[in-house]
Amino acid sequence: MKIGITGGIGSGKSYVCKRLAKQGISVYDCDAAAKRLIRTSPIIYKELTALIGPDTYIDGKLNKAAVAQYLLQSEENANAIDAIVHPAVFKDFEESGMEWMESAIIYESGIYRLVDKIIVVTAPDEVRIQRVIKRDHISREKVLQWMSRQWSQEEVRKRADYEIVNDGKADIDEQIEKILLSISHNHEIT
Length: 190
Prior knowledge:
The chain is α/β, with parallel strands linked by helices. The chain is built from ten helices and seven strands. Helix 2 packs across helix 5, helix 3 packs antiparallel against helix 5 and helix 4 packs across helix 5.
């Protein structure tokens, strides 16, 4: 059974994945995989260079400024980059043999189709904002801008199979335990 973990910026997905790791569950990190593949895949190198131009990579290294400039010009440009990177991540996940994955954009990217169950990690907006300000040392306005580009927690919560509330008060390990029991119980039935 394949399990996806998602949640908006500052919700605490990575923290939940660390708690799972303590229980011996390895989680494929889609964001880290995308960054790795952009650096190492000859196919992505070729396709991004064809899309953005010859200054996409300089001396074999991704020119983040050129990519960011292209990406922010339009939603079509962002979608064009996603159309190159997302399929590579999907394939890499499938080839990894891992059963768990973490993706902030599990629905938006379409990678949800590769998993059987989805867990959403949620937290009150103000808690999320403060976490990101502290973690990334960015302004409240920048955090709100990032949050506005993601699906709302409500929308994701409606689609997910399970929820972990990471508000700083609820017991994360207890919630994980309940979900793991439910997953193993449901897996035995099918």
